[in-house]
Specification:
The complex is a heterodimer of chains A (about 260) and B (about 150).
Chain A: E1 5-7, H1 12-21, E2 25-28, H2 34-39, E3 47-50, E4 60-62, E5 66-70, H3 75-80, H4 82-87, H5 89-95, H6 101-104, H7 109-115, H8 122-129, E6 132-135, E7 139-141, H9 142-145, E8 146-148, E9 151-152, E10 160-166, E11 170-177, E12 184-192, E13 198-203, E14 210-211, H10 213-221, H11 225-229, H12 246-263
Parallel strand pairs in A: 1-3, 2-3
Antiparallel strand pairs in A: 4-5, 5-10, 6-7, 6-10, 8-9, 11-12, 12-13, 13-14
Chain B: E1 2-8, E2 11-17, H1 23-30, E3 49-52, E4 55-58, E5 71-73, H2 86-93, H3 103-117, H4 123-129, H5 141-153
Parallel strand pairs in B: 1-5
Antiparallel strand pairs in B: 1-2, 3-4, 3-5
Helix pairs in contact in B: 2-5, 3-5
Classes of the chains: A alpha+beta (about 260), B alpha+beta (about 150).
């Protein structure tokens, strides 16, 4: 691994200032993507800015209508949180399926969202629940946050502070994990709000997380497993690799959507 | 270079590390504690699991410099003199190992499981929570038995 300058700022302002000053800086928010990437030589930042010592950077707050998770909160803290389990059980259960427990002890919600891996779980929950991502500058709706493969709407001087999840009437997350890596071949997060509006966030199936609008339309007509799994998904634009063809992923999407509705 | 000070198996330790020095490299190469193993070096196998501030983590995917001020326990920190930790005893008694390469990580992960789930942790939970530790010899059956027995004696 190439060497780098290590920084451990105590405030978000200092972290952003360090990133702006660096020619090629990276935030470290858990490191379970960044460090393996650096080992492989795919990333060689000059400055690594560790966010984990920032005061007040982690924590969970639940109100009557909203679950707020601060950016530095680890996956393990989210999945073990009694408040999250009560307010949005589907979210707590989904987070409990990210990696293994040792990974969940380090990985954070902010790191996962800023990285936007095509097979990451959190982005599907953000789209499936209609979350809002709060940065040091502004609030970004999940629908406008994930812009492409490993790409987000975040600017260079922006850092995620917290994520706000509206509490749905019902929700469920279903994932078909790759048997070796446990990453989602396809993962589907379905929710229905108090007004009967459905959202369906899909990960693993395409280069970037997306909303399955055809499934949403079917479920807005009739919220049933049958309605969800009857939707024919086009394989166009979906991922095709050694693990699964695009057609297989398209089929998985409607199957998992049906299972999610049944479990919601 | 960065100066770090931490508690390693209860003893204060000081060292000089580069930014890129991994925690497992510091433990094995600077401190000579080779009980912590490097199996895959890609954050998957769990042979390198140690406890950092009471939480099991993969020491191949943590920078040593980020552990300045931390309390770290490795497999060498478990036994009290010649008396093995109950989890170590259980792995021995239940044949929870064959080649032994994954064992330090398995034991560190198992103690972490008992800490979170208690002495009467069930088989399903153990299997689920050991998903980040890979064993290529045993087929896991005796490992799970060992963890249940070790948990009861902790």
């Amino acid at each position: 691994m190439e060497n780098f300058n290590y920084h451990r700022p105590a405030t978000t302002t200092a972290a952003v200032a360090l990133l702006k000053k660096s020619k090629d800086g990276k935030f470290l928010a858990g490191g379970h993507t960044l460090i393996p990437t650096m080992k492989q030589g795919l990333a060689a930042p000059r400055d690594v800015i560790d966010l984990t010592a920032i005061k007040g950077f982690s924590g969970i707050k639940v109100s009557k209508t909203m679950v707020t998770i601060k950016a530095g909160t680890t996956h393990q803290d989210v999945t073990m949180s009694k408040d999250v389990n009560k307010a949005i059980p589907a979210l707590a259960q989904m987070v409990g399926k990210i990696g293994g427990v040792h990974v969940r002890h380090k990985g954070t919600i902010g790191g996962s969202l800023a990285n936007n891996d095509p097979a990451a779980d959190y982005p599907s929950a953000c789209l499936g629940l209609g979350a809002t991502i709060e940065t040091n500058k502004r609030k970004i709706e999940a629908d406008k946050f994930f812009t492409g493969m490993f790409e987000t709407a975040l600017k260079n001087d922006e850092i995620i502070i917290a994520v706000h999840f509206p509490i749905p009437k019902k929700a469920s997350h279903q994932k078909f994990p790759n048997p070796a890596s446990r990453y989602a071949m396809v993962g589907v997060f379905v929710s229905q709000d108090g007004k009967g509006k459905t959202r369906v966030g899909v990960t693993g199936a395409a280069p970037c997380v997306f909303r399955a609008v055809e499934v949403e339309a079917a479920l807005n007509e009739e919220f049933s497993a049958k309605a969800a799994s009857a939707v024919k998904i086009s394989a166009k634009g979906l991922l095709s690799d050694m693990h699964a063809s695009a057609a297989y992923r398209a089929h998985l999407l409607s199957v998992l959507a049906g299972r999610a509705v049944a479990a919601a | 270079m960065h100066s770090i000070s931490l508690a390693l198996n209860g003893k204060p330790v000081h060292g000089q590390v580069e930014g890129r020095t991994l925690l497992v490299e510091f433990i094995r190469e600077s401190r000579g504690l080779t009980g912590t193993h490097v199996g895959c070096d890609t954050s998957q196998c769990g042979a390198c699991v140690v406890s950092v501030n009471g939480k099991a983590v993969k020491s191949c995917t943590v920078f040593a410099v980020a552990c300045d001020g931390a309390e770290i326990t490795t497999i060498e920190g478990l036994a009290k003199g010649v008396d093995l930790h109950p989890m170590q005893v259980a792995f021995k008694e239940h044949h929870g190992l064959q080649c032994g390469f994954c064992t330090p990580g398995m034991i560190m992960a198992s103690i972490d499981i008992v800490k979170r789930h208690g002495k009467s942790v069930d088989e399903e939970t153990i299997r689920r929570e050991l998903s980040g530790n890979i064993c290529r010899c045993t087929g896991y059956h005796n490992i799970v038995k060992a963890v249940q027995a070790g948990a009861a004696n902790m």
